């Protein structure tokens, strides 16, 4: 019965409520409310060190939240592409073996996934011999081939060439359309991702803003967040914030005062966007 | 057949090499060479405690090596000191503690060199039984654990996210290492156990295209090293442990393709 609930249209796959993760006396991310339902694509955007990876790791149970709650559907099958995977050269690992890392796979399912990402010819190659983009495609194929309920992708197309990037995002959406899985995505490729996403969540140590791409695109914030020519060209991701997170976890506000947290006063509204971008530094 | 001490040593050593191959692969893949060394050094403390409390030696070593590895993992999590420094502290302090304790127990005569470097003469039928029974358990558990442990070795976050419980796999792996050290001590000695794990695995890498074939070829390289080393040990009256390690080193050199060097050495000895 749980299984049928999990498979129902629009079923809740993972839900975070007021979740926060603390490391070394500093909150990496705090007060995150986030939900991914079956058939939904949720994209996290935000500057470096804004807690995107931390948030998705908490969502799938790799990290435990230090406050708040994370609820995952029982029996949830996750397919995960981490931000960084490095394989020691001493490991004899072919693409085919990598595909079966966390579970056995039928040959036709493997071939299908590898063909979908365009590297079926590399199945017997050792992964250390792959280029960065090819390896990234292999990781994506591995996650797809599991036929997961929830696909979690942390910058899945890094190192992939531009035309390949668009094709892979198309593939991710097609997979959602076909299988109805939920997708939690971290991406810097806003110009491509926006069109493929149901919900955008902007993080900066907490949730800054969120909404459907349509509502976000029409809002004045969007222009300032992502540049006015987003969608037309290779837009440079510009993210304007009016406060700076200090190393000790406190916050320097736009007027120079120091506060314990960002409060609700921060925003990305007109006027402030004119400020020097360099004022907003978020080191990883 | 097992009346002959040399045959006993050979049988025991081969059993050991078969177990060390797959375990050693994980030690190499996970970059745990120094970790294994630390666990092995703590074995002498286990020996001392076993004498003091009149326990079976193998059991004493297993318990102490297991505790040392758990202590390491916990201290690593606290993150007060670098792993490197922690290993250095535990490795040498457990070895020193063991040596000091043994020195205090003046009522017992212990062949310290035998523990440190192995002693083929000391291998009994009972030791062989322990090696094969213990080794079979270690290999069976490792086979059962293979997928989660291997996935955790490639990327622990993927393993965790996709429900393989990698932390449990890593914990059990520590226990397997402790068991391996306990049964290997008599043959190669405390100071050289990790070499039996690492060198055959490194040599096996050259002949392998999958993790499983690497494990098997590591075992075979280990068997060859044990056979060659023990034969040489008998022939030249050298200690068994170091002789096995030297043989393993030669196999490794061959595997990495040092053929020109080797041929020159061989040519010279033939010419003489």
Automatic annotation (TrEMBL), chain B:
<keyword id="KW-0812">Transmembrane</keyword>
<protein>
    <recommendedName>
        <fullName>High-affinity zinc uptake system membrane protein ZnuB</fullName>
    </recommendedName>
</protein>
<feature type="transmembrane region" description="Helical">
    <location>
        <begin position="86"/>
        <end position="108"/>
    </location>
</feature>
<feature type="transmembrane region" description="Helical">
    <location>
        <begin position="129"/>
        <end position="146"/>
    </location>
</feature>
<dbReference type="InterPro" id="IPR001626">
    <property type="entry name" value="ABC_TroCD"/>
</dbReference>
<dbReference type="GO" id="GO:0043190">
    <property type="term" value="C:ATP-binding cassette (ABC) transporter complex"/>
</dbReference>
<keyword id="KW-0813">Transport</keyword>
<feature type="transmembrane region" description="Helical">
    <location>
        <begin position="171"/>
        <end position="203"/>
    </location>
</feature>
<keyword id="KW-0406">Ion transport</keyword>
<dbReference type="GO" id="GO:0055085">
    <property type="term" value="P:transmembrane transport"/>
</dbReference>
<dbReference type="InterPro" id="IPR037294">
    <property type="entry name" value="ABC_BtuC-like"/>
</dbReference>
<dbReference type="GO" id="GO:0010043">
    <property type="term" value="P:response to zinc ion"/>
</dbReference>
<dbReference type="GO" id="GO:0006829">
    <property type="term" value="P:zinc ion transport"/>
</dbReference>
<feature type="transmembrane region" description="Helical">
    <location>
        <begin position="215"/>
        <end position="236"/>
    </location>
</feature>
<dbReference type="Pfam" id="PF00950">
    <property type="entry name" value="ABC-3"/>
</dbReference>
<comment type="similarity">
    <text>Belongs to the ABC-3 integral membrane protein family.</text>
</comment>
<feature type="transmembrane region" description="Helical">
    <location>
        <begin position="41"/>
        <end position="74"/>
    </location>
</feature>
<comment type="function">
    <text>Involved in the high-affinity zinc uptake transport system.</text>
</comment>
<feature type="transmembrane region" description="Helical">
    <location>
        <begin position="6"/>
        <end position="29"/>
    </location>
</feature>
<keyword id="KW-0472">Membrane</keyword>
<keyword id="KW-1003">Cell membrane</keyword>
<keyword id="KW-0862">Zinc</keyword>
<keyword id="KW-0864">Zinc transport</keyword>
<keyword id="KW-1133">Transmembrane helix</keyword>
<feature type="transmembrane region" description="Helical">
    <location>
        <begin position="242"/>
        <end position="262"/>
    </location>
</feature>
